[in-house]
Each structure stands twice: as structure tokens, then as C-alpha cells.
Design goal:
Order of helices and strands: HHHHHH
Largest sheet: none
Pfam family, one: YlbD_coat
Number of helices: 6
Organism: Bacillus yapensis
Number of strands: 0
InterPro entries: YlbD_coat
Helix content: 55-70%
Protein name: Cytosolic protein
Amino acid sequence: MSKKTLHPSVQQFKEFVKKNPKIVLEVRKGRTNWQDLFEEWYLLGEDDSRWDEFKEGNATASPTNDEGKKEWMQQVMGAVKNMDTNQLQNHISSLSQALGAIQGLILQFQGNPQSKVSRGNKANQPQHPFQFRKD
């Protein structure tokens, strides 16, 4: 089995991506795709300022995990501070009612056997109309 050889420019681009792994993260996050990145790399070259944000030495490219967590916690705390508890309670109550209604519809369409048993006197009746007993 012969291995396909890539065009030299594609091999160079792969080496460039290996040197700058933040480019892979951009593609995985869906912000761009490989085709666009390759075309930009091919037209602009490796030394263009477009690639500065992806270089390893650049500390301002993206916040570290600790900074990202702190920022997220600040956003959550800000949302909690601005929250109206009465309004939140009303939303939770209406959501609970909606879920109860949906659950009731599902049970109705399923023909839940528990709902038939809980109707009272039918639960006490035997399954068959004739009971045969041994003497």
C-alpha cells in the first residue's frame, strides 16, 4: 500500500499548524475552517500579523483557564445580584406547571396502567369475569 504524498505547500501548512496549536482550537470551536486558514496562510505567509494571535509567545491571545473561570464566576455573581427573587419564583412556578401539563399529556397518550388502577373500584374487581375455584 502506497502512502499518498501531499503537495509541498500542504505539508508546510501542517508544520505551521503544529508550531501553532491554537489554530486547531479555532477550528474545533467552529470559528473558522481549515480551507479558509490554508488560503489565508498561502496568500499572506507565516509572518503576517494575522497569525500573531495564534503564536505561543503571545500571552494576550486567549485567557488562561484560571482567568476564564474568574470571568465566568463574575458573570454568574453579577446575574445573581441583579436577580429579582419574586420574578424568579414566578418563572419557576410557571415552568413547573408547564412540565406537569406535559407529563399529564404523556401519561394520557401512553395509557398508563397505574392511572387505571388508581380509579378506585376497578382495582378491586378480578381480572376475569368468572372465577373458578377448586373444591
